[in-house]
Amino acid sequence: MINHVSFGPSNYLGPVISAHYDHVEVLANLHAQPDTQGLTRGSFVVMVRHTHAGTPFQEALQAPHTEDVSRAEFTVLRLRDVKSTLELSEPPLRHCHRLVAATPGCDALSLSVLSFEVLGTLLLDATGANGFRFSGDSGRLGHASRYCAFMPCQLMLAIILNGTVPSGQRINLGVLRESETHVHTQQPQPIYLSMGDVRGKRTAMFGKTRLGKSNVVKLLVQGMLDITVHDHSVGQLIFDVNGEYANDNPQDGGSIASSYRDRSGVYFLTDRGGNADGKLLRFNFFEQTDKALEIMRELLPESTVATDYVRTLLNCRLPELVRDPRMSEDLALRVLRKIMLFWTILHEAGFDHDESRLLQILNQTGFKSLLNPCFPQALRLAAYQAINGQPAPAPPKSFVDMCAEMRVIAKFALSYGNDPCLMRNGVFLFELDEMIMARFLSPNTSDGPFVLRPCMPFHAPMADGFTDEILQALHVGKTVIVDLGGANEKIIRYFAKTLSVAVFHAQEQKFVNNALNDRYVQIYFEEAHMIFPSSASNVIDVYSRFAKEGAKFNIGIVYSTQSPSTVNEDLLAQTENFFIGHLSSDREAARLASVQVAFKGCEQDIMRMRTPGLMRMLAYSNRYLIPVQAGRYNGQTRLVDAS
Predict the structure, then answer these.
(1) Which of 123, 175, 147 is nearest to 69 (CA)?
(2) For 136-163, how does the pLDDT look when each residue is reduced to its tens digit (9 = 90+)?
(3) Which of 221, 262, 527, 548 has the most CB atoms lying inside 10 A of its own CB?
(4) Which CATH superfamily is domain 189-282+466-630 in?
(5) pLDDT value at position 55?
(6) What is the pTM of this model?
(7) What 3-state class would DSSP assign to 174?
(8) Does residue 537 carry a pLDDT above 80?
């Protein structure tokens, strides 16, 4: 392939007059070379060396003979500035005058000096991807007179852009676009991305809203689905903050859920009604008793949680709805009564229940008293007479009757705490947490269990554990979309944290048991500033562990937001892939350059260009920035044939 690269007069740019390890200056006659008219700020250029060691390379401004150009390595340059020869310092200026004098009819004032940034060197290497290896430096640097620069032909440009990208798992991400003009449409140069660079690694998307971040994320999700179509080795979890991946939207080119219906599943926070295959993201507080109060703490408004009345309830510890076979009947009954007291609070607050389902669970888990709390008859007689002024009814057999009895006994315990009927073997009938729940159930003020009603939209009496369902779907390589559209930041953070912790623990357990088997989980976070903010004091442990240990456990993350400064620095420092759209301030561009040196010198381009879909990509296999006009997601595969 390299023998077909063109190094001739048609794409000759000029001799190098000043060569340094990080920058190079080239003398060029832009008016005399029509092919250079497409040269823009940021354009890629190659610097090559003369093959005859004893002969000066540059005797004049003419292009060297093709056979005199070394093809073993190519220094990759990026155009940074253009200036006049009058601005040259003394040594390069003398070199310039010698070249002009040796070139008949040449005027120094008609020449331009092009300043380039040295990106590194492409080396021929049979062990590298596609026969190339990239070095981040220029290697052994000779005198400037030994070098000259060429505009890359289409084949050379393809090598610069895609030469180090491994074959076999590539997608066509878009085309090279070095400026906001439409020059890129004349000879479109495809940009390939290896999905192996994304899988199990950290990928960042930054840029202002509606400029193409979500579109690129869709291309990544689609690419991962396409490369795993046979082995289903990567499960994907998308936290869809705006409903872009779960719901079709004409302006966004369709959704992942509709394009890959057989390999994806959707969980909705609110009933969309338009997706028959979707499931509502719901808890069952009657069954998840040991986790219910912790979940409510996250779902309730902060102003409600801060009140003493609610805070004391949320600090209670509830048992799991299961009977340990080693429990005595007496202990099992006390555990069940505590759960029944909580169920009464839920019922009083208006939460729906499914009695037959609860009875089935009680039977399956080994509880024998079912919906009867089995209070002593003497206590029942005293309580009903004192609270209701009537004799005790028959022992409860239904859920509603059980709740009515729990309310009566709870009020009696609060009002007549010294009654001997509340004592058994010298021990008070209710422990401290149960008295707190009794007081919550029958408060002295106007407060009541109704303060828990903000949690009702997240409850369903028939709901199963969605966490286990999602983990299983990820294990078999499905893409799970959690539609959090319309939720506030607290709700988004809660679901993101809960599922992220579950994924981390599941992958960690597989690692410990040597059962990863090259199976990955890729997690996508929209509006990442809400989930892992920049303040170190607010960092949630699981996200720090994603950044530092995720690769070990085959967990990759893709996170997108508008500003680099709003994301935790630990995560930024560990990120391998970047896709950068328009940033509007010096501070944001400087922040980006401070955590990834490849962006130094490109800050002005990032701030000036704001075309939708125009991204500066830094991928794991590329090592330098490539400006790409991302293709528009339309549900059609962009997988590149490995051949």
Answers:
(1) 147
(2) 988 888 888 889 999 999 999 999 999 9
(3) 221
(4) P-loop containing nucleotide triphosphate hydrolases (3.40.50.300)
(5) 47
(6) 0.89
(7) strand
(8) no
Coil, strand or helix at 51: coil
* Two tokens, residue 21: 């390890």
Cα–Cα distance between 329 and 130 in angstroms, integer? 71
3-state secondary structure 203-244: EEEECCCCCCHHHHHHHHHHHHHHHCCCCCCEEEEEEECCCC
Q: What is the mean pLDDT of residues 322-336?
A: 91
pLDDT of residue 643 exceeding 50, the answer is no
Contact, 116 vs 25, CB < 8 A? yes
Average pLDDT of the chain is 89
- Please give the single-letter amino acid code of residue 441: L
Rg (CA), the chain: 34
Geometric angle at alpha carbon 631, from 626 and 636, rounded to 5°: 135
> What would the pLDDT profile of 372-394 be if each residue is shown by its tens digit?
999 999 999 999 999 999 999 99
Closest CA to 199 of 576, 637, 511: 576
pLDDT band at 535 (very low <50, low <70, confident <90, very high): low
Residue intervals in the chain for CATH 3.40.50.300: 189-282+466-630
> What is d(CA 569, CA 544) in angstroms, rounded to the nearest whole number?
10
Query: How crowded is the C-beta side of 64, counted as CA atoms within 13 Å?
Result: 27
How many angstroms separate the Cα of 524 from the Cα of each of 478, 499, 539, 562, 637?
A: 14, 12, 18, 15, 20
pLDDT at 250: 66
Ramachandran angles phi, psi of 200, nearest 5°? 75, 10
What is the number of other CB atoms lying within 10 angstroms of the CB of residue 479? 26
